[in-house]
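Async update (no meeting this week)

Hi team, since we skipped the sync, here's where things stand on the single-chain job. The sequence we agreed to prioritize is pasted below, unchanged from the tracker. I ran it this morning and attached the output directly underneath so nobody has to dig for it. Comments welcome in thread, and please keep replies under the output.
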Amino acid sequence: MHILTIDLEEWFHCDLITGTGKWDSYERRLEAGTDRILEGLAARGQRATFFCLGWCVRRFPEVIRKIHAAGHGLGCHSDMHEMVFCMDPAAFREDTRRALGALADVTGEHVRAYRAPAFSITQDARWAFEILIEEGIEVDCSVFPARRDYGGFPSFGVARPVRLNVGGHTLKEFPINLLRAGPVNLVYSGGGYFRLFPYALIRHWTRRADYVMAYFHPRDFDARQPVLKHLPLHRRFKSYYGLSGAFPKFLRWMDDFAFISLEEAEAQVDWEGAGEVSV
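Output:
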């Protein structure tokens, strides 16, 4: 099962340091980047789910309508791209409601799927799952079951679709897939990880995998985006390495493998046999 997801953000949302004050003064590049992805997918008959930031939904409603009209799935990616583990429950609930409301205003439909910015539902922030259920979320893609700079849930223990038992309620979880390489867990199926590894390795690993959760942002394919020079060196490397060849690499991956949306994947999973994790 190969699932394709896109986190719909602007190029500057990789900046988790500065805050929101400058966002409206930055150049807008999201529409052109999204069009490029949609055209590539349409040419190959591939479907994806787009996790949309509420801030972007309000500024680019026509982009959301275009994605929806093309038959792709829509999910919620928070409202203001704040790390869940830095919020309290009340702030997280309000942020989620604003984003869901923005999506409903544009599409006329309630969104059932959620992904936290930077996979920031950690072990210490697992209270967020209960709030998601209360706000009508049925499918989550926020778990990164390994260590990382932001977020990460290394104690989660599962890197495949699973039922979350949240106080007696169920949430369907699609975590990021991992590749075990000796003592190390590798991620290769999205973002900077995908840009880092040679395509031959990515193709080999994909062929071996029963489950792949691919995730990208429009900025992952935008070699002409401005560079945020104030980012720490390691963040600048992860944000900008390999941009020039990333989109042809992505299209080659789409040519070599069949991908489906999250909604299609949800329908294919045997949830009774998927196992359960209590959080």
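Quick observations from my side:
The mean pLDDT is 95.
The chain has one domain: 2-278.
Reply here if anything looks off.
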